[in-house]
Amino acid sequence: MSDTVLRLRPPDSTDFAPFGRLVKPPEMAGERAFYSDCLRERPQGTAPVLHVNKVEPSALPLQVSEVERHPFAAQCFFPLDVAAYVTLVMPSAADGSPVPEEARAFLMPGTRGVIYNAGIWHLGATVLERPGNFVVLMWRGGPQQDDAVQAIPTLTLVP
Q1: CA–CA separation, 6 and 8 (whole Å)
Q2: Mean per-residue pLDDT for 97-108?
Q3: Taking Cα atoms as reference points, which of 91, 84, 128, 68 lies closest to residue 17?
Q4: pTM
Q5: Which DSSP string do the residues of 16-64 spell out, in sequence order?
């Protein structure tokens, strides 16, 4: 087991705000919830890419030793068929490296999505209970490499 254990938090928009936005459906029929402002910053020469991925389930406790980020574009995950999932986020240091000491982990219901701000280190899509599918939207292409993966000291996520 690792030295650092993180307890999963319930989804909280304020707690998540330094890393991006939580996406939830509107409460009333006929209402719309807009999140387009998260896509305004766009690397030059890129185009929107929309795909669906399938993720096999993981179990808790979950050991995490690698995170990813997209330095230039936000990344949006919308559960399409997901029971529950885990998201782990952490900021970037001045040199761009992840800061595991400031990590936060959330247990998300399959009815809420997440939008990671550009440059935020995060765990790849990780579902619990059963296989799941996400719709993923982000900007891709252009001259800059926008996928980074980094090893971190192991964090253990617990309920």
Answers
A1: 6
A2: 97
A3: 91
A4: 0.91
A5: HTTTEEEE---SSTT-----GGGG----TTEEEEEEEEEE-EE-SSEEE
pLDDT at 36: 87
Domain count, the chain: 1
Q: Is residue 100 part of a domain?
A: yes
DSSP 8-state symbol, 131: -
**Domain coverage including residue 68:** 4-23+48-158
How many Å apart are CA 25 and CA 31, to the nearest integer?
A: 9
Q: Phi first, then psi: what are they for 46, rounded to 5°? A: -100, 165
Q: Is residue 149 part of a domain?
A: yes
The conformation of residue 111, written as its DSSP 8-state character, comes to T
pLDDT digits (tens, 9 = 90+) for 110-154: 999 999 999 999 999 999 999 999 999 988 776 666 789 999 999
Query: Of all residues in the chain, what percent carry a pLDDT higher than 90?
Result: 77
CATH code of the domain containing 18: 2.60.120.480
What number of other Cβ atoms are within 10 A of residue 156's Cβ? 17
Residue 13 lies in a domain: yes
Q: Does the pLDDT of residue 57 top 60, yes or no? A: yes
